[in-house]
Write a structure and sequence with these properties.
The protein has 10 helices and 11 strands. A hairpin with a 2-residue loop joins strand 10 and strand 11. It has 276 residues and is of the alpha/beta class. Strands 1, 2, 3, 4, 5, 6, 7, 8 and 9 form a 9-stranded mixed sheet that branches. The model has no long low-confidence stretch (mean pLDDT 95). It has one domain: Spore Coat Polysaccharide Biosynthesis Protein SpsA, Chain A (Alpha-Beta Complex), CATH 3.90.550.10.
């Protein structure tokens, strides 16, 4: 089995260097495809020379169009997409591949996420459970794309690519379609990925909020009416699943001060992020 990672890129040179480094030092020979929309900030001066990635430079309709293009070019049996300001933790992809090899019936897998600020300091973490249809449809996607891994067949067998018309909320809409198709999902139960809170993340921008509202409107009327109960069920499920507890731990990552070697971070007082 082989894994392919897709990274959509546009004017994110410094962050992209860290993203690429975090894929390149994994214990598996991952295929890393960068779909760049024509960056004019100096990214292409070095990216086209970087032999660790397969780079394609072309205009696209959106981030999701870029991911679709990368997936169609990929050769892996397992796929994932990692934005420029995200990273994988050491050994993450080897663990993911071991899980898929041991569980051939599972088509989509979710890891836990460490959240850091722009300097790479720990801000919080998110432990996940497999998403449920009506919570995703009426509330929000409870997983993060940087820790989402899926078999090629989950997308290609049924043509379940991202909607390229969407700008920031395509993950949730895509997940609703996969859940309605009853794609078999599981959780890994360990940290695999880092999400950087740069202050310029797309999830809280007007496009994301508008697209989330539009997705909510397509849910069945009964589900929209039952939203408070769906939220309560989600939180109880997380409580019973131990999602709100975490002992001290450590992780290592690339930072803009250390782009060629990982820095170790000790977390003595773990904290969950609000809004989970």
């Amino acid at each position: 089995m082989r894994i392919s990672i897709i990274t959509p890129s546009f004017r994110n040179s410094d962050w992209l260097k860290l993203c690429i480094a975090s894929v390149a030092d994994q214990e598996v020979g991952a295929e890393h495809i960068v779909q760049d929309a024509g960056s004019d900030d100096g990214t292409l001066d070095w990216l086209l020379q970087d032999k660790r990635v397969r780079t394609f430079v072309e205009k696209d309709e959106s981030m999701y169009d870029a991911i679709n293009r990368g997936m169609r070019r990929s050769t892996g049996d397992v796929l994932a997409y990692l934005n420029c300001d995200e990273q994988y933790l050491p050994g993450a992809l080897a663990t993911v591949m071991e899980f898929f090899e041991a569980n051939p019936q599972i088509e989509m897998l979710f890891g836990d996420i460490v959240l850091v600020n722009g300097q790479g300091a720990y801000v919080g973490h998110r432990k996940v459970q497999a998403p449920l249809l009506y919570h995703t449809w009426t509330c929000h996607l409870s997983t993060l794309s940087c820790a989402t891994f899926f078999r090629r067949r989950a997308v290609f067998d049924h043509g379940e690519f991202f909607d390229p018309r969407l700008r920031a909320g395509g993950d949730g809409e895509w997940m609703v379609r996969l859940l309605r198709r009853r794609v078999r999902m599981a959780v890994l139960g360990r940290f695999t990925s880092i999400f950087t809170l740069t202050g310029d993340n797309m999830s809280q921008k007007p496009n994301a909020l508008r697209e989330a509202h539009e997705l909510h409107r397509t849910a069945p009327a009964w589900a929209r009416f039952a939203k408070p109960g769906i939220i309560l069920h989600h939180r109880l499920r997380r409580l019973v699943g131990g999602m709100y507890s975490q002992p001290p731990f450590s992780f290592s990552l690339y930072t803009r001060n250390s782009p060629t070697g990982r820095e170790l971070r000790e977390v003595r007082q773990p904290t969950i992020r609000c809004g989970q």
